[in-house]
Amino acid sequence: MSTPGATPAAPAPAAGSDDQTPLVQVDHVKQYFPIKDGLLIDREVAAVHAVDDVTFSIGRGETFGLVGESGCGKSTLSRSIMRLLDPTSGTIRFDGADITHIKQKALRPLRRDMQMIFQDPYASLNPRKRVIQIVGDPIKILGGVRGGKAVKARVQELLATVGLNPEHINRYPHEFSGGQRQRIGVARALALEPKLIVADEPVSALDVSVQAQIINLLDDLQEKFGLTYIFVAHDLGVVRHVSDRVAVMYLGKIMEVSPADELYARPIHPYTVALLSAIPIPDPHTQAARERIVLTGDVPSPIDPPKGCRFHPRCPRATDVCGQVEPPLVDYGSGHLAACHHPVGVSAEALAAGTIAPESPASAGTAPPDAREAGRSWDDGPAPLV
User: Fold this and answer.
1) Which of 133, 176, 376, 381 is most exposed by smallest CB count within 10 Å?
2) DSSP string spanning 195-222?
3) Residue pLDDT, tens place only, 238-294
4) Is the pTM higher than 0.85?
5) Per-domain residue ranges for the chain?
């Protein structure tokens, strides 16, 4: 029997949960937002397919990057994982326990292990509260620390950890620069010693020099505390620096998943190739010699996404099959998955060895690309995979 006023217990980890169990498991998750119409009775007339049948897992201590254009669903997916949104369908497991539909009371203690760093350091901090309140309130509410001296000491320790002066605990957010405010956001996320931190574009609103400071800080904190990150960003250069694995999203679907070095050296999906071609190189001669791939057309509406491959209306390699059958996620080895009927730079041997991955959407086709794709002539793409 629970004691009145006691904090509800978090869901117990599944039996057999250990360091080998992924910390986060996302299984065929969908996140739709209904569009309703009607004067007296609201009826659903359509839905925004923000996230559509996404599957992946994240190991302990890993940094998993989510990249894609604005509106691709990466921030919505991260909020679904944090249970800030209730998934439409699918399963989300954290530390071996199913948290997809747990109630708010049971979810509250779980917040100790799942924290978030928000994109805008100007909007994510309460301008009416001092730093000691912003960072200290989670410690008092969820951390069980009640004494004022103990909270103050902990806040000062956290500020020192993120590179701020511990004596500034009584300042308001407007008294700090943008980079310093983001450091306060990092300190708040660390306050409860979480296992997972979702960083939703944490450096996009900062100057380039400050971006590097925050990225290096996150790296140092991960090494010190064994943190697991989900890193959401537009900047593929930043993602390459921080991520162990990267998932590329487009219009609610995962197009490609790969270890970071593999993805940047040998992209398979035409959309990934186009994104990488937009990364500037700090060498004027090399940059001038590069050919950037400019995608034509606009991103289709997530209310009425195209049939088949979501990317086919803008893809330079699209054929009839692309508009008819959704490509499955195919495993080409070394953890490199891609969903494309006409993959870039894949050898005949790699095509023949490719198998449909368990992460493939339920709505996708059941046939991987034919080995004859290696012999087709295209105008884009890097050298074939070895």
Assistant:
1) 376
2) SEEEEESTTTTS-HHHHHHHHHHHHHHH
3) 898 899 999 999 999 999 999 999 999 999 999 999 998 887 777 777 767 777 777
4) yes
5) 24-38+45-247, 267-375
